[in-house]
Amino acid sequence: MNELTILISCPDQVGLVTNITRILAAHQLNIIAMREFVDEANKAFFTRIACTGELKDTNLLEEKLLETLPDAAEVNVITRKEKQIAVLVTKEYHCLAEILIKNQFKTLGANVQCVIGNYESLRNFSEKLGIPYFFVDHNNKEKAQFEAEIKEILNHFDLDYLVLAKFMRILSADFVKDYAGKVINIHHSFLPAFIGANPYKQAFERGVKIIGATAHFVTDHLDEGPIITQHTTHIDHNFSVKDMVRAGKEIEKKVLLEALELIFEDRVFVSGNKTVIFK
Ligand SMILES: Nc1nc2c(c(=O)[nH]1)N[C@@H](CN(C=O)c1ccc(C(=O)N[C@@H](CCC(=O)O)C(=O)O)cc1)CN2
């Protein structure tokens, strides 16, 4: 018995659930879990439906669903398949390590195809775990050239997502457009506070009493993409920037892996610059 996940977003109207469930029944699909949300402000409807059944033609089901839904509906019928990802890194290992350890034990919910770093620092670690590592130097070259070299590598893989695991280079609007909705970043602050470089230094100078981390989709507005998940921890006047960095690392790992789990289980909708998440 196959398991399917059906994601639907569309303008809200009366009768959506009736029409959707009728079509699923007509395709002999058994609903085992169903979540819905209506964004009243934008009159938008979202649903995530887990089904079991033998679906012969995914495209036909999508067509039948679209026929019954209002215009501008989006339907995504997902058969269980492991997501394929690449991870971009700079020098810090803590987020990469969490990802590769879960990848090693097949508990990530995705398959890491490669790691790309703008330093050599994390090559040994990646290759010891059998993951191909590609070094792309950002020095002494234009951003466009740097990104072209990254894309050249990425094009060898059929990827679902790119994960920025403390990758410290700003990606151009062109690059982000080519991977729209597929790039996830872990930012080391409780956004919208402290966007950009050195958020812990910014936090120290501001004298905040909590710090945090935010996983978000990457857009060409630095650190302002749709937020997926966040966590915080309390600090006090005794914390130096170094103490914040140390405490922050634990939060960053937790936030990124929680966000990846939600994404890999197809629980995340993007709605404008926000997300709707069915946990
Ligand atoms: N288009 C985007 N690219 C990246 C994002 C993003 O949200 N949109 N997030 C960053 C990660 N990041 C914070 O989480 C971040 C990394 C680096 C810097 C920065 O200023 N870096 C360099 C220069 C950057 C460059 O020119 O490439 C610096 O320190 O001067 C700010 C925020 C990853 N990319």
Overall description:
With 279 residues, this protein is an alpha/beta fold. The protein folds into two domains: 2-79, ACT domain (Alpha-Beta Plaits, 2-Layer Sandwich), CATH 3.30.70.260; 83-277, Formyl transferase, N-terminal domain (Rossmann fold). 32% of the residues lie in helices and 31% in strands. It contains eight helices and 13 strands. The strands form three sheets. It has a seven-stranded mixed beta sheet with strand order 7-6-5-8-9-10-11, sandwiched between helices. A hairpin with a 2-residue loop joins strand 12 and strand 13 (274-277). Helix 3 (94-104) runs parallel beside helix 8 (241-264). It is globular and about 60 Å long. The mean pLDDT is 97. Bound molecules: the ligand Nc1nc2c(c(=O)[nH]1)N[C@@H](CN(C=O)c1ccc(C(=O)N[C@@H](CCC(=O)O)C(=O)O)cc1)CN2. Residues 164, 167-171, 176, 185, 187, 196-197, 218, 220, 222-223, 225 line the site of ligand LMY7XDAE.
Shape: globular
**CATH T-level fold name of the largest domain:** Rossmann fold
> Into which percent range does the helicity of residues fall?
25-40%
Q: In the CATH hierarchy, what is the architecture of the largest domain at level 2? A: 3-Layer(aba) Sandwich
Q: Which structural category do the helix and sheet elements fall into?
A: alpha/beta
Number of strands: 13
Instruction: Give start-end ranges of low-pLDDT stretches.
Output: none
The small-molecule ligands in this entry are: ligand LMY7XDAE
Mean pLDDT: 97
Hey, roughly how much beta strand do the residues contain?
25-35%
CATH class descriptor of the largest domain: Alpha Beta
CATH superfamily of the largest domain, please? Formyl transferase, N-terminal domain
Succession of helices and strands: EHEEHEEHEHEHEHEHEEHEE
Give the helix tally. Answer: 8
The whole-angstrom Rg is 21 Å
Distance between the termini: 23 Å
Mind summarizing the main beta sheet? 7 strands, mixed
**Total individual domains:** 2
Enzyme class: hydrolase
InterPro entries: ACT-like_dom_sf, ACT_dom, Formyl_transf_N, Formyl_transf_N_sf, PurU, PurU_ACT
Organism: Pedobacter chinensis
Keywords: Hydrolase, One-carbon metabolism, Purine biosynthesis
